Amino acid sequence: MKLFGFAAGVAATLTLLSTTSAFAVTQISWWHAMTGANAEVVGKISKDFNASQSDYELVPVFKGTYPETLNAGIAAFRAGQAPDILQVFDVGTGVMMAAEGAIKPVAEVMTGAGMTFDKSQYLPGIVGYYSKPDGTMLSFPYNSSSPILYYNKDIFQKAGLDVNNPPKTWNEVWEAAKKIKTSGAAPCGYTSTWLTWIHLENFAAWNDVSWATQQNGLAGGDVELKINAPIFVNHFQALADLAKDGTFKYGGRTSEAKQIFLAGECGIFTESSGGLGDIVKSGMNYGIGQLPYDSDAKGAPQNTTPGGASLWVFGAKSDEQYKGVAAFFAYLSKTDVQEYLHQKSGYLPVTLAAYEATKKSGFYDKNPGRETPILQMTGKAPTDNSKGVRLPNLPQVRDIQNEEFEKMLAGQQTAQQALDNAVTRGNAAIKEALEN
Amino acid sequence: MIGQSPLRTFIAHAVLILGILIVAFPIYYTFVASTHTLQTILRPPLPLLPGGQLWNNYSEALFGGIGRIGGVSVGQLLLNTTIMALGVAVGKICISILSAYAIVFFRFPLRMTFFWLIFITLMLPVEVRILPTYKVMVDLGMIDTYAGLIIPLIASATATLLFRQFFMTIPGELVEAARVDGAGPWRFFFDILLPLSRTNIAALFVILFIYGWTQYLWPLLVTNSNDMNTIVIALRKMVSFADADTEWHLVMVTAMLAIVPPILVVVLMQRWFVRGLVESEK
Amino acid sequence: MAPQLAITLVFFYWPAGQALYQSMLRQDPFGLRTRFVWFANFRKVLADPAYLNSIKVTVVFSLATAIVAMCVALLLAVMAEKAVRGKGLYRTLLIWPYAVAPAIAGMLWLFLFNPSIGSLAYLLRSLGIAWDPLLNGTHAMILLVSAAAWKQISYNFLFFVAGLQAVPKTLIEAAAMDGAGETKRFWTIVFPLLAPTTFFLLVVNTVYALFDTFGIVHAVTGGGPGKATETLVYKVYNDGFVNLILGESAAQSVILMAIVIALTAIQFRYVERKVHYG
Questions:
Q1: Does residue A8 fall inside a structural domain?
Q2: Are residues A355 and A289 in the same domain?
Q3: Closest Cα of chain C to A436: distance in Å?
Q4: Virtual CA dihedral for C234, C238, C241, C244, nearest 10 degrees?
Q5: Is this entry keyworded Disulfide bond (chain B) (predicted)?
Q6: CB contact under 8 A, C90 and B16
Q7: DSSP letter, residue A314
Q8: Which among C202, C4, A1 is positioned nearest to B115, based on CA atoms?
């Protein structure tokens, strides 16, 4: 027992030594999942915000990957120690929305602090995704990205394809991919990260077809998946056929395929706009195009939907803390802060003013790929099919879809079977989740 | 010493070298990566031989690079991690050697019940019981403390089991002889048991130090202050697989930094594994 | 003993009790709506074909991992004892990889073992092996077992070395004088004396393979392709930590605990009888 007591004593002393910060200002805690260059951006923004005023001190804390951060937030909430601000990834949006007693909508935080919150200042495609069906903004979009097409210009050259003219439709992608493969320019024609996000969720929005009932789940209630409609089946059958001889190469469920593209194995690649940084730094001779659409779809191209994460505010905090949070969100909305965030991190700007300012500065002339995702998201006013998708258990539904895709790509089932199974199993899981 | 044929010696060396190649290759590869430019690392496959960026990468990482991305200085990270690893190793060895001693050498009521009570803890890793444990830590006010980092990790039975296994090999005659000599339980423990357990303590110390050193999920959860971060957390913070640029060359240097202290521990403990002359005629 | 019991009670039994309670609840992640459902979660889990599948996967995975990890480590430890020259160096080189395994392995993954572009995949493909663990379930399982066993080799090696050190040299020399060959000496004298260590490692490796491997599964295969490598503990982790289905996840961990306690009891009852102490 002695030793134990000694260890605890030492630990307690060390703790006392380590907690000597000033308590004159209100501390605002912000738990985030930002890594790499984005972690640096979080640090810089927090420091600048703290320097810009003297009432609040924003304390950013890294809490691991997106799921780890969400779990840390949930555990803290259940233990009565929730942070003020929690960054939650897009697929966790449904979970947070269902937790009405735990969170305080951002719109309320802002108005409660006496600030006006003008939604029209923000990019509609992004704000729409993080709002309730009645339009109340629930969380503050911090980082958003959208899928775009990348291609390797050297490989295009070798295959005799037009280096300045990336494929625009999926059929053109398939043709170009076959040409790359048969000409021997590269061992594989096309690869993609995130099949679920790019080839189902964004595929549906971009082609203006329904992914699920109830406005893809945004309207809530009983949601049923629609992803076994013919347009999806044809698309996936094409992928499955191309996978047989390696023209399409599967890289994994999340962003692993980026390595295949970076290695120069595949000529064409679809991935989040946030993935641009690594491709630039690798020194590859690359080009960028819009996400391809399906030439059979009438409304295409419609608009793509955001991925990324937003900032949620927990409930049951003091007014003083909410004022601090509101002050931070107001700071975050400032044009120069958004410009910095957008240009340094590769995420989309949240406000229209920041987009215009960036455009004026000539940034897009130097970095043409950076504007593509914004144009994709703002080209048309979103329809019921293109505001994004929302489920209380989206990660689980994506798991199911991935499992079925893998069986399909391994040649164990057709696209029709894969998507039928994904719908049946997905619907059962959604129903189950809604009962909780 | 028993003589060996040259062929057998050769086979032994060959097997060992093969084993080292398999087991140690990833570390070598990390080192290789830490000596290349970011551009080389980003265009797989990575070369098998070191590049020429050793000095540049290491000086950039140590003087500012890691602190810039992670928000905490390298020194603080290493200090936190060392305290945690030492705390886990020493704490767990102390409590488990005592428990095993009690279980093996004393007869008291409910002895086996206690053994099983402790032993079952082997069955539930930190990660599975993490959320309820976190609640306990909050209630005890141990968030952001070294004690909070260390103590929950001590609650596991691996070490107790190992000591039990070892103590049971100690011949009854030895215990009897000690009793006849009039050695009390504490003298028996310190003069006989502890010296005999040396190799096992050394082995456990290495394992537990490394266990404490490489923890990720638990420190992530129970610390809310950047100043309490460990090197593994900093490492993970620097790596972005998806949406951001990762300065892989600096990451690989950090990885090497995370490897070096455990290696030192292994090398220092090495001496303990080699049986001394004193007990060679046991 | 008191300190360990105290810590165990506070940091283990209290949380474990909570897990047991949780396993009988249906609850949203934030704990805002709670229903007590008795054993409904258990019934649901046990009726789920995916769960039964993952039991099968787990048996294959755990057996293979424990056997591979222990055999390789024992071989290396015995060889390290034999090599008179360079003994210390060999030992060090074989132990320290353990230091890095968990921290670095996940990161190195992309560069080294990544199924499509890792250096290892290149090697296999240049040997003419159609290596595709992303879509081939058997390949994925082989990859997973190698990764899990690899991580455990240094650990086992360390304890086998410590165990071998404790074998009295006088006994071996006596046997050698009696004319026993090297192989015979090992199996009749050294191996039986190693039994306590081997038994300890058997228990630890089984528990490791069953419990401590979700990180590896997560990094290596994510349970795929399909559900070919979804082990029980990965399912607990994925359902609870990622998908936030708390009740069922808790029920799964309770079942898992029951299985392992039973397994260990069997090991103690039947295997330990054969263990030769002192």
A1: no
A2: no
A3: 6
A4: -140
A5: no
A6: yes
A7: E
A8: C4
Residue B257: closest C-alpha in chain C: C100
Q: Which residues of A touch C30 (CB under 8 A)?
A: 74, 77-78, 99, 101-102
H or E segment to which residue A320 belongs: helix A319-333
Q: Which helix (H) or strand (E) holds A15?
A: helix A2-18
From chain C, pick out residues whose CB is under 8 angstroms from the CB of B152: 11
- A152: which chain B residues are within 8 Å (Cβ-Cβ)? none
A38 and A138 part of one domain: yes
Q: How many domains does chain B have?
A: 1
Q: Can you say how many angstroms the Cα of residue B144 is from the centroid of all Cα atoms in its chain?
A: 21
B259 in a domain, yes or no? no
The H or E element spanning position C66 is: helix C49-82
Verify whether the Cβ–Cβ distance B151 to C11 is below 8 Å.
yes
* C contact residues 31-50, partner A, Cβ 8 Å cutoff: 31-33
* Crossing angle of the two packed helices C97-112 and C119-126, in degrees rounded to 10: 60
Tokens 């997905």 locate to A426
C273 near A CB under 8 A: no
Per-residue tens of pLDDT for chain B, all 282 residues? 455 677 878 888 888 888 888 887 777 888 888 888 888 877 767 777 888 888 888 888 777 777 777 777 888 889 999 999 999 999 989 888 888 888 888 877 777 777 777 777 666 666 666 777 787 888 888 888 898 889 888 877 778 888 888 888 888 888 888 888 887 888 888 888 888 888 888 888 888 898 888 888 888 888 888 888 888 888 888 876 666 667 778 888 888 888 888 888 888 887 776 654 334 333
CB atoms within 10 A of CB A290: 19
Chain A residues touching residue B39 (CB < 8 angstroms): 281-283
- Same structural domain, A131 and A168: no
Beta bridge partners of A312: A86
Chain C residues touching residue A100 (CB < 8 angstroms)? 32
Where residue B218 sits, what CATH number does that domain have? 1.10.3720.10
Q: Give how far C175 is from chain B: nearest CA, Å.
A: 10
Number of Cβ pairs < 8 A linking chain A and chain B: 158
Which are the contacts of A224, defined by CB distance < 8 A and separation ≥ 6? A212, A213, A423, A427, A430
pTM for the model? 0.85
Contact between A57 and A27 (Cβ < 8 Å) = yes
Q: For A143, what's the count of Cα atoms within 13 Å in the CB-facing half-sphere?
A: 27
Are the C-beta atoms of A226 and A212 separated by less than 8 Å? yes
Compute the CA torsion angle B152, B155, B156, B162 (nearest 10 deg).
130
Cα(C231)–Cα(C54) distance, rounded to whole angstroms? 5
Whether A312 contacts A103, CB under 8 Å = yes
Ranges of H-type helices in chain B? 6-33, 38-42, 54-60, 66-70, 74-105, 111-119, 130-139, 146-154, 158-167, 172-180, 185-187, 194-196, 198-213, 217-222, 231-238, 248-273
B21 within domain boundaries = no
List B residues 179-238 in contact with C (Cβ-Cβ < 8 A).
Answer: 199-200, 202-203, 206-207, 210, 213-214, 216, 232, 235
Residue A218 CA to residue B80 CA, distance in Å, equals 45
Q: Which residue of B has its CA nearest to C10?
A: B136
Distance between CA A341 and CA A355 in Å, rounded?
A: 11
C187 is in which domain, residue-wise?
Answer: 48-274
Q: In this structure, are A33 and A139 located in the same domain?
A: yes
Counting the structural domains of chain C, the total is 1
Q: Among partner residues A102, A250, A396, which is closest to C243 by beta-carbon distance?
A: A396
The tally of domains found in chain A comes to: 2
Contacts of C11 in chain B (CB under 8 A): 133, 136, 151-152, 155
- Cβ <8 Å between A39 and B70: yes
Q: Per the structure block, which two tokens stand in for C46?
A: 């046990």
